[in-house]
Amino acid sequence: MEIQARILNKAEELFLTLGFKSVTMNDIAQELGISKKTIYQHFEDKKALVEAVCGFVLNNTECMEKECISTAENPVQEIVMMSKCMRDMLETMNPAIFYDLQKYYPKAWQMYRLEKERIRKVMLKNLEMGIEQGYFRNDLNVEILSRMRIELIDMAFNGQMFPAKDFSLIEVQEAFVDHFVRGVVTEKGLNTYNELKQNI
Predict the structure, then answer these.
(1) Cβ atoms of residues 96 and 159 within 8 Å
(2) Whole-number Å distance between alpha carbons of 4 and 48
(3) Which pLDDT score is estimated for 65?
(4) Using CA atoms, how far apart are residues 147 and 92, in angstroms rounded to an integer?
(5) What are the start-end ranges of the E strands in 50-175?
(6) Which residues of 24-52 are buried (b: 16+ CB within 10 A; e: fewer)?
(7) 76, 50, 81, 47: which is closest to 65 by C-alpha?
(8) Higher-confidence residue: 141 or 93?
(9) Beta-ladder partners of 136
(10) What is the C-alpha separation between 75 and 129, in angstroms, rounded?
(11) Both ends of the chain: CA-CA distance in Å?
(12) Which of 18, 70, 145, 146 is most exposed, with minimal Cβ within 10 Å?
């Protein structure tokens, strides 16, 4: 594997599990068995590496999301599939990473904020399709609900509201998804949702 890709992969693993702030360039170099100098030949500084990792993660997330959309048979299944992808990602993710980004890496944080807006538009389209196909109620305000759904994702990472010692990040996100879906579905949508949950 090309050295730059190895650095990126190892940095992603360490940053997402331990947090962006606590992992040093030295930690990454030691884990890879290379010198810090080698890392600096490919990434100007830690900030540049953090931004590269964020871009890498966000790109992978978008690819997984597109796969869910292209393979889902209906808008309810699309939400369930995306929720499963998120659950897989969250299994090893440290909730502190969003605080770290916001406080120490403004450019990377801005990348995340732009990604949130992209996901909101995907959610908006999902809601509109669900209404059109009879899975979601036709009295929904999709603009409000698409924004609410995105903010719920962020809320789960709030360590003051959901301390890690008391709540699993996956448990919180899944409770939010379940609450959201049950709030928007018609009877047809609820039957589909219950069937999908039984098969997971």
Answers:
(1) yes
(2) 13
(3) 87
(4) 26
(5) none
(6) ebebbbeebebeeeebeebbeebeebbbb
(7) 81
(8) 141
(9) 185
(10) 7
(11) 35
(12) 70
CB 9 within 8 A of CB 51: no
Mean pLDDT of the chain: 92
Q: Could you report the per-residue pLDDT of 98-136, keeping only the tens digit for each?
A: 889 989 999 999 998 898 899 999 999 999 999 999 999
Domain boundaries, the chain: 3-199
Give the closest residue to 111 by CA, choosing from 68, 44, 62: 62
Give the SS3 label for residue 70.
helix
Residues in a beta bridge with 131:
none
Position 24, amino acid: T
Task: Answer yes or no: are the C-beta atoms of 85 and 65 closer than 8 Å.
Answer: yes
Q: Is 73 helix (H, G, I), strand (E, B) or coil?
A: coil
- Span 34-81, pLDDT tens digits: 999 999 999 999 999 999 999 999 998 888 888 888 999 999 999 999
Give the number of other CB atoms < 10 A from CB of residue 112: 17
Q: 0.90 exceeded by the pTM?
A: no
Give the tokens for residue 126: 């999902």
SS3 35: coil
**What CATH code is assigned to 3-199?**
1.10.357.10
Total residues belonging to the chain: 200
